[in-house]
Amino acid sequence: MTTLADRPLATETSQGIGGRLYRFLRSIPTWVLWVLVILWSLPTFGLFVNSFRGRDSQRTTGWWTFEGPWTLDNYEAILSAGPTGGLWQAFLNTLAIAIPATVIPIAIATFAAYAFAWIDFPGREWLFIGTVALLAIPAQTSLIPLLQLYSGGAHLTIPGIEKTVTIFPDLGLAGEHVAVWLTHTGFALPFAIFLIHNYVSQLPKDVFESARIDGADHFAIFWRLVLPLSVPVLAAFAIFQFLWTYNDYLIALTMIGANGVNLPMTVRIASLAGEFGRLVHLLTAGAFVSMAMPLAVFFALQRFFVRGILAGSVKG
User: Fold this and answer.
1) Is 2 exposed, middle or buried (0-12, 13-18, 19+ CB in 10 A)?
2) Who contacts 14 (Cβ-Cβ below 8 Å, separation ≥6)?
3) Is residue 164 packed enough to be buried (19+ CB in 10 Å), middle (13-18) or exposed (0-12)?
4) Which of 305, 270, 291 minimizes the C-alpha distance to 43?
5) CB atoms < 10 A from the CB of 307, how many?
6) Could you give the CA distance from residue 262 to residue 254 in angstroms, rounded to a whole number?
7) pLDDT in tens, 171-217
């Protein structure tokens, strides 16, 4: 019987949570994993089959019957510029949201993680604890206050003298992609800093000391050492963040609202069914089109995924 243990691997992990998980996965027979892959792939395959079937076929027979007629009408309808389609523009809007909302948190969090891990400054531990504690704040309770902040600013009226002080200016961001970027960045930073810090703090101290002896400052160390060595964890977080922002519905709907020109695919697909579910058969094609980009991103970066997500949990 062939198992994962029969396959050669570059490194042997023997300690910590990651080591136990590693040994458990190696003990599973390969055929069990293939069965799980097939079971998990069945809904996607059924979605793909139904995306080429018309409304009547989808309602009267299951996808496993493979009954026609087969047609491309569903794809033509969702990709057209008519009232039921226009997913090309929505796809571009999704990329305009997901890419900056992934890059910005990574850029900020990597700097912060290096500072928390390797720069000694007063209050570092308490500030790090406070940053990680922000993970407990639910996004749902903060969206409306943030929208009011973006569209109206924050003002404080001083009693007695009836003077209004502007604490935060009105940026007029309601309905714009920038509002979604800022919101996703704010909620992603605590987890990003925590994950990247766990990885960066485990880098060999001798490498940093040698760089300092050679005259390198913090920026040179960060740019020449930390970034190249942190590619696995950065790729792992990029997968998480891109999938979250790409598939997000609530934040995009709240911040963009009725500005249909800027709506992403998730909001547009939700409206494909039309009134009373008259066009519900279009959802299969819309959902399958929306799956293409996340799958491409995952498979492109999946070799970094396990190493990055186990960052800081494996020693030795």
Assistant:
1) exposed
2) 316
3) exposed
4) 291
5) 17
6) 12
7) 888 888 999 999 999 999 999 999 899 889 888 888 888 888 888 88
